[in-house]
Amino acid sequence: MYAAPPSVEATVFATIPQTFHKPGSNEWLRVQMRGAEVPVYLEGPAFDRNGDLWVVDIPWGRLFRVTLSGAVTCELEYDGEPNGLAFHKDGRVFIADAKNGILAFDPATRRLETILGRIMLQPFRGLNDLTFASNGDLYFTDQGQSGQQDPTGKVYRLRPDGHVEALMSNIPSPNGLVLNKAETMLYLAVTRDNAIWRLPLVDGGTVTKVGVFIQMSGGNGPDGLALDDEDQVVVCHVGLGSVWLFSARGEPLLRIRAPGVHAHATTNCAFGGPDGRRLFITEGDNVLVAELPVPGKTLFSHQ
User: Are 242 and 5 contacting, i.e. CB atoms less than 8 angstroms apart?
Assistant: First the structure.
């Protein structure tokens, strides 16, 4: 439908040192990676108040902090499967954990607490990602093993007063999600539909007229999402080793390729750096970085 957009290649910003690599396999790797030995698998990038980047290591239950100089420290290791991160305005980092639900970790006190372990006495399928609205509402996805064979994934909203509600059900693998700047639209990566859905929010947050915003192809499908200051949507295409930049109208503007022929696990991304226009991307045991074009200027030439 569209011509191929300009293409650039990301570079490696930081690599998790081998001292943090875990040997062997476990239950998560048996199911998700067919038993492969994966010493680190990064996801969920998010920046704290100091400008440091935090990422999760899903199979081994760890949170890493990466400074802008590239130094890596392990800030938390626990019995869990953390997938998504989002910082609360009070400094705590909220975790979408596939095993334990919504958790919160306080870097100052080192306290880890459960915010929401189940709903109506029932466990979640397996939480994936989360994002905060400006009023403190927390939107999160419950993906589990849902897909076209079992389209039972859900999107939830947790209010600051503790009220939780399911906004949408019957989704074949809900994954990353992000609000537009006006917070009138929730963009949702639906991995097994290989598409980005948009969920309009009206009358205080009611979801209506849900539809496909971007139909993708190839790879395993879209994973993490981000939004820039112009309401342009960034999509991490896991399995294809690429990250896409789309306009607010859904037009492809840029393709960012991961370096290396085997770098396909472009799972998630976050904006950071001094001007907020550097895109940091999780891929395997690496954090990649790419410079995005300045608005109003010519995009990168084709490569």
Answer: no
